[in-house]
Amino acid sequence: MEIKRDLYLNKIVSFMWDGQVKVITGIRRCGKSYLLRRIFRNYLVSQGTPEDRILSYELDLARDIRFRNPLELAKTVRERVERSPDPFYLFVDEIQMSDDVPNPYNPDGRKITFYDALNDLNSIPNLDVYVTGSNSRMLSGDILTEFRGRSDEIRVRPLSFREYYAAVGGDREEAFENYAFFGGMPLILSRPNDTAKMDYLKSLFSEVYLKDIVERKKVKREDVLSAALDLLCSSVGSLTNPSNIAGALNSRQKRAGEDIVASNTVASYIGHLSDAYLFEECRRYDVKGKRYFDYPNKYYCVDPGLRNARIGFRQQEMTHITENIVYNDLRVRGCEVDIGIVYGTERNKSGHPVRAPREIDFIAARGGKRTYVQSAYAIETEEKSRAETRPLGLTGDSFGKIIVRRDIRKRWYDNGGILNVGLVDFLLDETLV
After folding, report:
1. What is the C-alpha to C-alpha distance for residues 263 and 119, in angstroms, rounded to an integer?
2. What would the pLDDT profile of 293-315 be if each residue is shown by its tens digit?
3. What is d(CA 336, CA 325) in angstroms, rounded to the nearest whole number?
4. How many beta carbons lie within 10 A of that of residue 352, not counting itself?
5. Which residues partner with 69 through β-bridges?
6. What was the pLDDT predicted at 139?
7. Contact, 431 vs 411, CB < 8 A?
8. Of 156, 10, 12, whose CA–CA distance to 89 is shortest?
9. In whole angstroms, what is the distance from residue 421 CA to residue 233 CA?
10. CA distances from 407 to 146, 221, 410 (A)
């Protein structure tokens, strides 16, 4: 089955020959290697690039194991490229497999890393450098620090529903139900049945993601990391903070004394999960006050199938799952996303007017444009309708406003100019935000 990833291909093409190292990052198994070694390679060949001008090294394979030594990699590539005036492309896949080696000129000094090798190779004028890496060694903070401003990061995510539906076709509603349950990890499409899909997703957590984090971050309390992960998966779309999670862990597991989980430990572990691209924090923003709140915030899982797998495919609260899917889709579209807070007036029990906060699910900002988005699984009553539209009317500006709903098929505007659009329709129409 051919999976098209035109969004990411276009990003790579736009960065060609810009003098930077192109670093393709993202959660493991989301299709980074496929994007580089198949989709982009095919593009280069279709544009007339000879196959022998594309130098490709897969560091997870035995045949390329000697190139895990960054000095060996740099030496081999230089000897090949500097003999010719022709343009070359370098692909290094699974760069996290590279080893740190002693500096031959200063054995007691800082070790040589793949960052050193790639920065060196990037200085060759007729070489364009592309690498992929998994979370254990290629987290975004490392990239920005080690490449010292000489890299373009291309963040790859699991399949969006648009990409998923383009691959599977068929009935849109049935496709969405499968997507909401199993998510968009690319290999899901090749699994023969539901049991195989579930087993694959569960194994990603137990055999890949958690092991990477524990190894790289030297996590001492694996039980706390695992429990915090379970709570985040159970509470997507709900406001929380490290203190609340620590309190819940201590209460549920009846921890006491030295076994008590501290909130700073939970905060650190949530940071590890975010660095590994498993979760993203969505902060609350005061629309009129133009400031961020410290806590509480929300956390969304990078893929609904992974979230479902972690909690054993239970807790299928479609309100939270669809909200997570809408958030992910806005991020795929290149938006910066916040939770909007606006204030209205209510009367307290004594009848006095008081200032009351109202929440807008998402403020999606891109290129100077802002769109307010409410995710409402269903609006069955007039009271529910008012609850969804009231915050949008309090923004005090004329930016676009959308309510994304699962209970309608045709889109329409209400008297306040708010677009009501079906969830599947929204996910398939990339022009709406």
Report:
1. 39
2. 998 999 999 999 999 999 999 87
3. 15
4. 8
5. none
6. 45
7. no
8. 12
9. 27
10. 48, 43, 10
Residue where the block lists tokens 């992910």 = 328
Sign for the CA dihedral angle at 139, 141, 329, 16 comes to negative
The closest alpha carbon to 129, from 49, 36, 51, belongs to 36
Read off the pLDDT of residues 263-284 as tens digits, 9 standing for 90 and up. 999 999 999 998 888 999 999 9
**92-112 burial string, b = 16+ CB within 10 Å, else e?**
bbbbbbbeebeeeeeeeeeeb
In this structure, the chain runs to a length of: 433
Say how far apart CA 294 and CA 281 lie, in whole Å: 12
Q: Which residues of the chain have pLDDT under 70?
A: 134-150
Q: What is the DSSP letter of 238?
A: S
Structure confidence at residue 136 (pLDDT): 42
Task: Give the separation between CA 8 and CA 157, rounded to whole angstroms.
Answer: 9
Reading the block at residue 230, the tokens are 């379970």
Count CB neighbours of 311 within 10 A: 14
Which of 138, 172, 171, 168 has its CA nearest to residue 154? 138
Max Cα distance, the chain (Å): 85
DSSP three-state, residue 36 = helix
Span 332-380, pLDDT tens digits: 999 999 999 999 988 777 777 888 999 999 999 998 899 999 999 999 9
Could you tell me if 3 and 163 are in contact, meaning their C-beta atoms sit under 8 angstroms apart?
A: yes
- Contact criterion met (CB below 8 Å) for 50 and 100: no
